[in-house]
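Newbie here. two chains, one complex. Structure please?
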Amino acid sequence: MEFWNGKALLVDLKEKKVEDLEIEELISSVKGGYEAGVELMKRYPDGDPMVIGTGVYTASFFPSGCMGFVLWRRNEKHFCLPVNWFFPVEFKLTGFDFLIIKNSSPSPARLWIRDGICDILPAEDLMNKNVWETMDFLKEDHGDEKVQALIAGNNFLSQGYWGGFDSIGCGQEFKKKNLKAVCVRGMGSISISEESFKKMLKVPRGKEVELNLSDEAKKLIHRRTACFNCSLNCYPFFMIEEDPKILKESEKKEPGFISLDPVYLKDGNLKATMEMLKKGEHPEGVKEEEIPLSFLKFVEVDIPVVRECMNFGVCPLFFNKVLKGDSSYFNF
Amino acid sequence: MDVFSAMMKLREGEKVFMDEIQGFFSADADALQAPMELKIPSIGIYTGKGASHSWLWAVDTFEKYGLDLIFPFNEEELHLVSYFEFLFVAGGDTFALAEGLGRDGAEKIKKFVKEGGIYLGSCAGAYLVLYTSKPPLNLFNFVPVQIANFESELPPVRTMREKAFNRYACCFIIHPVRDEVVIETSPFPPLFLNEKVSAPIFGGPVFKEPEGRGRVLARFFSFTDRTVFLFDREVAERLLPEKPAIIEWRTGNGAFYLFGPHLEHPSFRFANSVLLKIIAYNVGKMRKKDSLPDVFFKGVPLRLPESIRRLVSDMFIKALSIGDMRAFWKIGEKYYVPEHIPVFVRAIHKRMFKKRIFIEKEEMEIIENDLKISKDILSRISPSTPEEKVELLITSLKDALRIFLRAYFRRVGYEAHSLSQVS
């Protein structure tokens, strides 16, 4: 099945059960990943389900093809947290397109997913660790720098060390499930035809974007980085503890940080921001927004466009700025 | 049709012929002057004591070109040698190979070739069967050819001292270059064509001219931008160009084919073509065995259990992460570096998703036990890990791989087995 594994993973934290689901038929019947995720929420309604999903071009060569999402319900209302960068790609390359998490674990737990295998592991020792300490532990425990994780902080779900856009309480939903982290390492591949590959190469690339930062914050930028195969390099790395102009490997353990969400940076207090990232806290607390407003502001599109982009696993900012909202680029 | 297309057609079950006189391949026997029908031969690959990771290159290359009737075996399974049509002994530690195979192995190999088998020796597997007076290597005095990369005084080493030479009695076997060299093939059977081919060399022999029943199938020709000179370039210029790189030594009904460069390396397609032509020609010439031995038909069709896949996945993740660790361990006469470890683990990792392999319960237990031992060592590996531990890691990995790969390459069984035998 081109672009997809055709498999979802169903995890019941209460029963400690893991099940592979064949979902080729489901994927064929919907437009893309977001719609499939919503459908999975309907098909598995029990146990307060949460769906972590990917889009059509997640982990492909499509520029910015690294978009995923987390879906859940709270008080009969649907929420969707867009997740981009390494986690969705690494997750899709584990052999699954979606992860459905049911119920709560009787004791603190974490998931470890790779090569079509999922283990529910104890996480008692992690409950007192902050986000960065948890990420350090996961890398050490699984013996690899390349593992990626979604980690529950104080009120926030962080993608590894880099935070994210969770101002809508996804981290709290993880906590309700007694789930500290979902850790993944993708060593598989997805099928892409030569024809699709050639078409992807013809998708336009954009130019560097202007970052909406204070002058003080701009002075602390050490480097900027971009998502997969995208040229917009919208993620700044701020060097807090060292001179940002020095281009060499830092000798400090925590010299600075990358933030995926510019809302952190609005007050310019980057040191405080770094501490919040470590704790896994969002400065705006938890809001009742279907999709975080900060994300919508960042990508400068409205909710239907975000949904469309999550169907295809492509960053809405790239879709907006480079593809100029032309969804014909999605048709392979 | 070239040799690659011929192999593809064989894999697809089509009839393919090779012209014994001109070396052409065709699906139409009538189109050839002296057609020899080809088939996929059975190939035993030695994986036991002394074999490093390069036998896995042979597995990859043979599989890629459809020669997938492969059976890895070790020094405790020498009785299997007579089952095969080809025997592949790859690189590693020549002394350890000789110790591992021992007198019994030497006799089995001698009998194997005498009765029509083809011995393919690459690097250490080539050194092994050359004449020498030093025990236990002298058990394998099968090919009376000397090496040219033998010096009484060691020239100044310029780089990679640990890989540049081996002491041998009062002298030195030196390895003037590593990585890529160009060889020139001979225009007579089994290669039929005078062409220049790039091939990798990692310490393999540079032969002197064979006499008697020996023939030179290829000579070292030149160096490339990727050639690494371990001594002054003049040393390499003196020792390699025009010296034999591949030799054939016919004995009894069979033959020894010895390669200085690793023709089996999967990244060198044209070197692979040389190896494939040698195999194809000999397949065409040899008397066909009526049936395959039972060892290719054991086991019941199963997916590798999750417990084993879990071990392999976790080991592979760890093995990849140590690839850039700066360390080396000397095991026997062979230096191992961290980047060798993922080669072993990858070989099982990339094949473990096959929907079914033909495996027996005891084999699964052996694989799981060996992988547990390996994982335990790998999870704590560091530059200061003792060499005995690393040797155990590699031995356990090789044992697990040997059992796994023979199951992976098995054919559908003709005996009816029930699932209860393995449940």
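Moderator note: Confidence is low (pLDDT under 50) at residues 414-423 of chain B. Residues 387-408 of chain B form the longest helix (22 residues). Thread marked as resolved.
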